[in-house]
Amino acid sequence: MSLGFTFLLGLVFCLEQRIWAKNGLLPQPSIWALPGTVIPQGSSVTIHCRGPPGVVRWQLLRIGTFISRYDRTSDGSQGVSTFSIQSVTYINAGSYYCIYWKKGVWSGRSDPLDLVVTGVYKDTPSLTALPDPNVTSGENVTLLCETSQYYEIFNLTKDGRNVSPQDFLRQDHNTFLISPVTLAHGGIYRCYGSSKIYPHSWSLPSNPVKLLVTDPPAPGNGHLPIVTGILAIVVLLLLFLLFLFYQCWHRVKHGNIDCETENQVKYKSSFPVMDFQEENQYDVLDDIQPEKDRQMAMQVPIVEDSQEVTYAQLHQETLRGNVDTLLSHTHEDSSGQPCVYATLNLS
Q1: Which of 130, 155, 297, 323 is 20 to 30 A from 202, alpha carbon to alpha carbon?
Q2: First vs last Cα of the chain: how many Å apart?
């Protein structure tokens, strides 16, 4: 069968199905394939057709190198019919349509399902993302597909699915420009080579390229942690100063002394206060000081007059006796007796 005749037959078939669909006699069926529409050569694929309940006769049409028809019958309860291909070859590649028979007429055709078979050509292309596969949303990226053989068409898949040319700003043979890049463009890409005569027969897949798209950073976000830390330190310092000020103010208000005076009082109160008028002051000094320090501590400073003074040691007996009696005592006898000191002013 010549290529021109095949094209003409397919055109007639499409016009026929459009006429039926335009008349609105039957609802349009739907079609999909599992595990996908890009199938490695030798793998299996299942094509599903769905229509209204009660359909018992289905037909799967393939328009490609050859026009093929696959008939199926079902019980009509689910309205779904399946067509399985166990080992896919380049002959199975092409555009598929579903139609069904009901109420004595054929329905309009479904939307096309382009089944692609990879590995028909044994060349392995190389895919590169320029300038880098890690891009920011809003930037541009170019996917370059290179091969050792010449191909008329270069195809691109994303996450195992054929990418439509509408997803790119421009395709120049083996380059695919994405501008601007959005988060939806992120994924794993591979490229393939094919010809215009057999557009559904592709080469082996290229190396995978993972396109990672991130949102642009918000203005000032890089300095935000530093500014937050500085503000936190300043706030804590102010709170500490306010706490100290409040404590000082509270004590001044209720104690009628300032903080410095209170500290001095506390410092002075840490030492024992000696009252030389008490009888047991010497006992305390005997316990806490050496002999020499005790003698110095017993000397109470006296504010002296500008006049000359003379100190005399008087025994207690002098208060009751005469001077001769006082002189009769030796130094040894009076050493053990208590004595007092009197200040005599000279005229």
Answers
A1: 130
A2: 161
